[in-house]
């Protein structure tokens, strides 16, 4: 592959309140690149301030949101999302969505930033968790499928970009033939969307950080982070 | 007569095990469900989190509001199992279903060691994780459950590296220390965590010949020992459990290398469960930040009453169950 060209030093933060943050860090550290890419774990507003971009990992969205609130990170994160590149995987995708149709009882806080509605555990409980090879538009070696690992994964139920917002680009759908029960929960084609971009934000309902394949991490750095920092 | 579905033998299954234990039936539509990747993957999503024992839906909601990353549904917390005595079994499925309904986070439940029918029942009601637990009275003095045969993942307790790798070999996708449940005394969890870490450190510098001999010595499958030595950690997620009662206990286990913690009796037998639960959740995230640990440890009310672990321990040494 081509080394990713970094014009300046870049710091990518991984929100490290709860969940699979170490896995994302390990994946980013194996990206081939020229120039300096620093990866830091973010647990405080001071650490967030240093970052040029952020990954919100998988975990439990209600736990991460509460810990963000208790750590004084909710408002700084909402501001961060407005101006910088952010990638949410699974629980991170829920936190980036503008609404969740089945939050925990009493509701849960979101960061917003991506104009979609999601449903938590949309495929069912853990016994419905599954793996499926995906075609993803824009990845290096795009003809090689990317293994999607869906763990109590959310389902995207609505794409709602407003006219003044960047358009949503769907980069991967899961074919019905690979779904565990051959159909989405409501038979709605929107629910087959499993990876998308809106402007500098990337959202995946599955876990690229659990594979040995760092093409998604390359994609995020190149297409979202480097592109958003370009003058 | 239609063709019978293909039966997929798990890695750890032995001849005849498919006769009595449930089988993972592979048909065209479900071939990608219940892989080891999604089983161990869920444990990875729980890392940096606190899994709390709860005995009803109301406690489950308190735990979720306090930031638990999962709850463990059981009829009595371990300290109450100790004082009640008798045989401790899987909980009533109705009670577990009420807890599943009440929360959005994963729900786990315990089965007796070796009791694969209790596990079949829990899988059928859609539980997210099963703990094959020494806290309940063992159902089999010789065999653990063949966990490869299930779609639902299992967590198991271990006191040392050999025990951890035997459980992984049987299909456990998640390991926890045994500690000494229901005592509010962290000493055994520390002992088990340190034992596993020490044994991994020694294995990591061994030659191949030494690893063969060491595998025999600790009664662990060679291929798992070799993988552990290469990774310099267990090949699955490793939580601390058994006796954790304070935010400082939780941070201690994290600094000793645990990926997260289970808190059993320590929360709902304390003076202010909601506050203590939230403090332990914060302690696990900020385990290296003594200033935050001090803040969250303030004014938590009375902790659970702790027990000394000696020959007179009521309910006996649960950690010695399992083989």
TrEMBL record, chain A:
GO terms for molecular function: glutaminase activity; lyase activity. L-glutamine binds at residues 59-61, 120, 151-152. Keywords: Glutamine amidotransferase, Hydrolase, Lyase. GO terms for biological process: pyridoxal phosphate biosynthetic process; pyridoxine metabolic process. Gene3D superfamilies: 3.40.50.880. SUPFAM superfamilies: Class I glutamine amidotransferase-like (SSF52317). The active site is at 90 (nucleophile), 207 (charge relay system), 209 (charge relay system). InterPro entries: Class_I_gatase-like, PdxT/SNO, PdxT/SNO_CS. GO terms for cellular component: cytosol; glutaminase complex. It comes from the Eukaryota. Coiled coil: none annotated. It catalyses: L-glutamine + H2O = L-glutamate + NH4(+). Its EC number is 3.5.1.2. PANTHER family: PYRIDOXAL 5'-PHOSPHATE SYNTHASE SUBUNIT SNO, PYRIDOXAL 5'-PHOSPHATE SYNTHASE SUBUNIT SNO1-RELATED. Belongs to the glutaminase PdxT/SNO family. This is glutaminase. It comes from Russula ochroleuca. The lineage of its organism: Eukaryota, Fungi, Dikarya, Basidiomycota, Agaricomycotina.
TrEMBL record, chain B:
Residues 36-241 form the PdxS/SNZ N-terminal domain. It holds the Pfam family SOR_SNZ. D-ribose 5-phosphate binds at residues 53, 182, 243, 264-265. It catalyses: aldehydo-D-ribose 5-phosphate + D-glyceraldehyde 3-phosphate + L-glutamine = pyridoxal 5'-phosphate + L-glutamate + phosphate + 3 H2O + H(+). Pathway: Cofactor biosynthesis; pyridoxal 5'-phosphate biosynthesis. Coiled coil: none annotated. Keywords: Lyase, Pyridoxal phosphate, Schiff base. The keyword Lyase applies. The keyword rRNA-binding does not apply. Belongs to the PdxS/SNZ family. This is pyridoxal 5'-phosphate synthase (glutamine hydrolyzing).
